[in-house]
Design brief:
The chain is α+β, with helices and mostly antiparallel strands and about 600 residues long. The protein has 20 helices and 11 strands. Strand 6 and strand 7 form a beta hairpin. The protein starts with 6 loop residues before the first helix and ends in a 33-residue tail after the last helix.
């Protein structure tokens, strides 16, 4: 499935690159707009972070929640209160709420002409200031202690060196607050000169006015709930569920057809149906969701994200289809040129498919990162390059395993289904992946061996042997007379050359005659040794993997030989030896003990 994600993504990426290359719009930004980004689109992760902040706001006490109707600042008892009341109220006004406007106008001088325009100009001026902290402004206590009647916020009240550098001259105006009885207001000159001050500072890009925390999420989601009618929600649910149900019926129907084809052995049609089924299911499900959500009002951020997700799903379906067709072509080519009997072709076909899936997954992820999440993929790849340098030592085993897997595929010491002996363990190879090889042991456990171990260690492929040569030791007792020893050797020779043993072992007496000989005198036995061959096939060029014979059939053959040997020795009264110990008595007349005593002469 992984490969299916790559090819369409590659084509779409190439198409996108061509379109961008031919577009007349330049990607460079001029300094006239303050190097602001062209798009105001809300990023997915920014919106996700804001949703978390909005969720946390639900658990805050009511006294800590501020809104247009319940502001944090609503006072004019000090310069701090007046400035913060004005800024908070006008931020609400800029977002389309009219109720806080009166609070903002109360901070301006009375009877000022066109007060609403003055308030907006002054707000835009504040947007070009650094974010003002309430703690930097004199509060009610400071005003009382120092008897302050006038406070110049700009340019003397804040650091304004940045403003002179940004516009290459002094701003034309100032922001001053004056005491009017028990209230503080902006001065007449501040209000009358707000427009001129704004004009002189327009070269400075304004700060973002919208609170980019929980309010951002609410401002994006709230219009969707408020402006979408109930009937539109119902239609969205009907079409979405309908698409899912149709996709489910398609999946179940195709699965039944596949099961029938598999029972008939038609794996080509099975592969074709499997290739078409998943893309069809994805396409129908996405189509239902797209039609159902068409009538839902969405903020541009949500609308863009919706179409990006639809695009990514369609890319997934298309890539899956193309990769399936390529795999089908590989399957057809393998059967045409190699056939199903070639085990190496089957293993290499599996490796190619797995590699294509890995490439497809990587390409699809890059496509989603760039087109859905709007990440800079080139910067991401560059960052991964630096990160990869830091992980090079930690990942060296994974790289060794990868090269070990490639070595297995290139040198082919074994394939799936082979019997092997590795580090004293015997089992069948169940799977060869890019990192590990899994071996099913005779005891039933699965042994996972990192591929890099097969580079330096010896592995025995038992499935590639053409025969098994058995060397058996037959031990008879010491009191067996020589003529009985000769008879025992003759019996062994007759058994190993008998028709039933030769037929079961499929051995060729001319090429591989059995051999029996008197080997040695043991500690408690006379050892007769016999050697003979058990062939895996009548054709000596065939190996165990290509026949139905193997280690277990060899054990049956050894049982046949041993049973015949036991029967013939019992008939000939030839005893098998077992560990014994002889004890001789001094009074035994047949075995007299010679005891000598040595006397020493006395010293002179």
């Amino acid at each position: 499935m992984l490969l299916r994600l790559s090819l369409i993504a590659l084509m779409l990426g190439a198409f996108q690159s061509v379109v961008l290359a031919q577009s007349p719009l330049s990607t460079e930004q001029s300094s006239a707009d303050g190097n602001r980004p062209r798009s105001t689109q809300v990023g997915f992760f920014e919106l996700l972070e804001s949703s978390g902040d909005a969720l946390l706001d639900l658990f805050k006490p009511n006294g800590h929640r501020h809104s247009a109707q319940s502001p944090e600042y609503n006072s004019q008892k000090s310069p701090r209160d007046t400035v913060m009341t004005f800024v908070e109220a006008m931020n609400h006004v800029a977002q389309g709420r009219r109720e806080p406007l009166e609070r903002a106008l109360n901070t301006l001088p009375a009877d000022i002409p066109d007060a609403e325009k003055v308030a907006m100009d002054l707000l835009h001026v504040f947007d070009r200031f650094p974010e003002i902290s309430p703690g930097t402004l004199p509060g009610e206590k400071t005003v009382a202690e120092q008897d302050i009647a006038r406070f110049e916020l700009f340019p003397r009240g804040i650091d304004c060196a940045w403003a002179y550098k940004a516009i290459d001259e002094a701003p034309n105006g100032h922001v001053v607050l004056v005491r009017d009885g028990d209230k503080w207001r902006f001065s007449d000159l501040t209000a009358l000169g707000a427009g001129d001050l704004l004009d002189s500072m327009k070269a400075i890009p304004p700060r973002a006015r919208v609170e980019r925390k929980g309010q951002l999420f609410l401002s994006v989601v709230e219009p969707t709930v408020r402006k979408t009618a109930a009937i539109d929600w119902a239609l969205a649910a009907i079409f979405t569920m309908g698409g899912i149900m149709v996709a489910w019926f398609i999946y179940k129907g195709v699965q039944r057809i596949i099961a029938k084809r598999e029972s008939r052995g038609d794996d080509i049609m099975t592969t074709i149906l499997t290739s078409i089924m998943i893309p069809a299911v994805i396409f129908v499900g996405v189509l239902g969701a797209a039609i159902g959500s068409a009538k839902i009002y969405m903020h541009p951020a949500l609308s863009t994200f919706r179409w990006n997700m639809i695009e990514a799903a369609l890319v997934l379906a298309g890539v899956y289809l193309i990769v399936s067709l390529i795999e089908l072509a590989c399957l057809g080519a393998r059967r045409t040129f190699y056939g199903d009997e070639d085990p190496y072709a089957r293993m290499m076909s599996l490796v190619v498919r797995r590699g294509l899936r890995v490439v497809a997954t990587i390409v699809l992820l890059l496509f989603v990162f760039q087109n859905v999440f709007k990440w800079n993929v080139m910067a991401l790849i560059g960052g991964f390059g630096i990160f990869a340098l830091a992980l090079s030592l930690a990942a060296q085993d994974a790289v060794k395993n990868l090269f070990g897997g490639l070595t297995i595929f290139a040198n082919r010491p074994f394939i799936d289904g082979d019997w092997i002996r590795f580090e004293g363990e015997i089992g069948t190879v169940e799977d060869v992946s890019l990192q590990v090889t899994r071996i099913r042991l005779l005891s039933g456990e699965v042994l996972s061996v990192p591929n890099m171990k097969f580079i330096d260690n010896t592995v025995e492929n038992l499935s590639m042997r053409k025969y098994l040569r058995r060397v058996m030791d037959v031990q008879i007792t010491y009191d067996t007379p020589p003529e009985k020893v000769d008879e025992a050797i003759e019996i062994l020779q007759q058994i190993l050359t008998s028709e039933d043993v030769i037929g079961d072992g499929e051995s060729n007496l001319d090429m591989h005659p059995p051999k029996v000989w008197f080997d040695k005198f043991g500690s408690h036995y006379l050892n007769l040794r016999a050697g003979y061959w058990y062939m895996m096939d009548g054709d000596e060029n065939r190996i165990q993997r290509d026949s139905e014979r193997g280690y277990f059939s060899y054990l049956d053959h050894a049982t046949l030989v041993n049973r015949k040997l036991l029967q013939r020795f019992n008939e000939a009264d030839i005893d098998f030896a077992f560990p014994t110990q002889s004890i001789y008595l001094a009074s035994d007349p047949d075995r007299e003990l010679a005891i000598e005593s040595r006397q020493t002469e006395p010293a002179t």
